[in-house]
Write a structure and sequence with these properties.
It is a single chain. The N terminus is likely disordered. With 278 residues, this protein is of the alpha/beta class. Helices cover 41% and strands 23% of the residues. It is globular, with a radius of gyration of 24 Å. It is built from eleven helices and twelve strands. Strands 1, 2, 3, 4, 5, 6, 7, 8, 9 and 12 form a ten-stranded mixed beta sheet that branches. Strands 10-11 form a two-stranded antiparallel sheet. The longest helix is centred in the first third of the chain and has 15 residues. The N and C termini lie far apart (66 Å). Helix 7 links the parallel strand 5 and strand 6.
Length: 278
């Protein structure tokens, strides 16, 4: 007959063999992303991440910075995937071998906002003549000035309007900060600024009463704001979670996730229009 200790040991051994093992969360189940401030500020990623986890078992962790800094994090192999909105810079990133599997996901539009009294008279103008009017009036304009996707778009519009970026002018203020901070600075200075439509709705939702900045110009093809995801090239960055990145790309471009993006609203307004070809 077995001794008492031996008998207890046998029971525990049997239980160990028949009970399912407790799930072990490996580092492969966490996907690190660098993204633009607008996907974070609006709450879109807080909304999508639990659904992604539910569908795939992968937890999404992200850092929200300007697109320029996000691309730098990708080049440095600090993240496994990007969710950004500067198509020209993204294509260069891929051409240089840093990224793969770029996929369009959604878009919204940039808008020019400013004080209600509109000192430069840009209301209902297309973006290009609106910037010309601001420049002629020397009205206060707040630039992100941070190499973000929004900043890159602003610089491209000045160029498309046939104007030099007025970096040395007193009326042109470079905030060097995120979009919400830049909007607050523009409001303080009764100035104009360029903002994506989703972040402007978020800005409105944070206010009590009428916003000090109103939409004055939302016309022109130059204001399209396309968002895409890019996996970091595993041949350059061996430690990235490439399969997890591809899983996110497939998921966020799926009919399920595209419907979630379409249904994401603040103040009763949609912030992004899905446009992945799933």
């Amino acid at each position: 007959m077995k001794s008492g200790k031996a008998h207890v040991l046998a029971i525990f051994t049997a239980l160990f063999l028949i009970l399912p093992a407790a799930p072990v969360l490996s580092s492969d189940s966490i996907l690190t992303m660098a993204t633009t401030t607008s996907t974070d500020n609006t709450g879109l990623l807080d909304y999508l991440a639990p659904e992604f986890k539910k569908s795939t078992g992968i937890r999404l962790r992200w850092v929200a910075v300007g697109t320029g800094k996000a691309l730098a994090l990708g080049r440095n192999c600090d993240v496994s995937i990007l969710f950004v909105h500067a198509p020209g810079a993204e294509k260069e990133f891929i051409e240089k071998g840093y990224g793969v599997s770029r996929r369009k996901i959604m878009y919204n539009r940039f808008i020019l906002v400013g004080p209600k009294h509109d000192p430069a008279g840009i209301e209902n103008m297309d973006a290009l003549p609106a910037l010309k009017a601001i420049s002629k009036k020397k009205a206060i304009f707040v630039s992100r000035g941070d190499n973000s996707g929004t900043h890159k778009k602003e610089l491209s519009i000045w160029k498309a309007a046939g104007l030099e970026v007025p970096e040395k002018e007193d009326w042109y203020i470079q905030a060097g900060q995120g979009m919400l901070a830049s909007l607050n600075l523009a409001a303080e200075r009764s100035g104009y600024t360029l903002v994506d439509g989703g972040t402007y709705i978020k800005y409105q939702s944070n206010l009590k009463g009428e916003p000090p900045l109103v939409i004055l110009s939302d016309r022109g093809s130059s204001l399209l704001n396309q968002y895409s995801v890019i996996a970091i090239n595993p041949e350059r960055c061996e430690k990235v979670k490439h399969e997890a990145a591809l899983t996110f790309i497939r998921w966020v471009a799926s009919a399920e996730a595209q419907a979630l993006i379409s249904n994401f609203r603040l103040l009763g307004q949609g912030l992004f229009t899905p446009n992945a070809d799933y």
